[in-house]
Every structure is written in C-alpha cells, then in structure tokens.
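Page 42, continued from yesterday. The earlier attempt failed because a stray header line got pasted into the input along with the sequence. Redoing it now with the clean sequence only.
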Amino acid sequence: MDVGEGVELEQMERTKVLTSEIAGLLSDVRENIGLSRKLLQDAPKHPPPRETVRLVIPEIGFFTWFVAGNLFHGDSLFADLHGMEVEDLAAGVGVEALIGHMTERDQPCIAEGFYQAIKTGERCCLEYSTCPDGMHRNVVLAGCCLRNEQGLASFFCGIVFEKKASLIVDDSEPFRAYCDAALSLAHERGNLLAARYLRSAIHTTASPQG
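This time it went through. Structure tokens are written below.
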C-alpha cells in the first residue's frame, strides 16, 4: 500500500466515524423534539390559543460524501427516504448507487446538480422523487462541497428531508433551528469535527432555493 492509498483509507475511516457521530447527535435532537411535542400536546388547552399557523419541524437526515473516494454515507432517515440499507450507507456507497434510487426522470438533473456543486463549491438545493417500496416520496437535498488545504473537493455534506404538502413553515427557519440544536450538542460533547460539518449544513439551509 502506497502513501496515497493510506491517506485515502484514513479519510474513509474518518468519514465513517463522523457520519456515526452526527447521526447520533441528530437522533438525540429528534428525541428532544419528540419530548417537547408531547409536553405541548399534554399542556392545558385553556385559554384556547389564538395562533392558527402550525409550525412543523420535519425529520431531517444527514449525509456526507467523501468525493475523492466516492463514498456516500447517510443516516437511517436518509436510508429510509431512498429505500437503501443503513448498513450499506454506513460502509459507504458510490454516488451512482444513490442516484439509481431516484426516479429515472430526475437522475440527469441531480447528477448535473452534484457536478455543479462540486465544481463551484456553492450551496445547492435539489428536489427529486424516490419510490421506496412503491411509495412515492418527494425529497429535498441541501448541501455544499468543502475543499481541503489544496483547494480540492473533499467532503460534500448536507441534509435531506421529505417535502410534504401538509408541511407548514413560517419565517422562524425550523431547519436551521434543528441543526443549531445538533450543533449545540456537538460543542457540549467536544465533537469538533462534527460541529464543523453541522455549521456547513446550517449554511446550506439559509435562503433555500428551488
């Protein structure tokens, strides 16, 4: 094994550890949100609330793509939205395998979107459909490609969530609030690398397009 291969393997291992750490952080945030929702549901309903707009925070999945090694990692929600196995995503799959789980109509646009995001380093926001177990899902992916010290594409990271007609969102930026909560946990637990990528994910949720 030459030096280049050793460095690549080390980066792949770091990616697996990072993905696992962030998946754990997001899982904890989901649990906290679930508890908060239950407390709100159990709270006294008198006097009746005057607010009529309901704010829903969707389940958000996290992904990291090690571009040089073409290894795409994602958490359990990412796997569920794409009809993929969690174990496969933990080990890392090629981006071609991921695109293959999207509807054929959307595949060329998503491939081009990924290419442009890697080329420019700018944030991207992509929408596409999947059909895990024959169930149609509309997915939104937001992410950006980070550069290493040499300015080369290194990690492409971001979030995914299911776009639903029943989702009502106001100007409070719930997606950013979700990642902010995970970022706070990362700082508390000293997960500095995870915090770095969560900050990048937070950046991707600002002023979404598409």
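Notes: Confidence is low (pLDDT under 50) at residues 50-55, 168-172.
Reminder to self: strip header lines before submitting.
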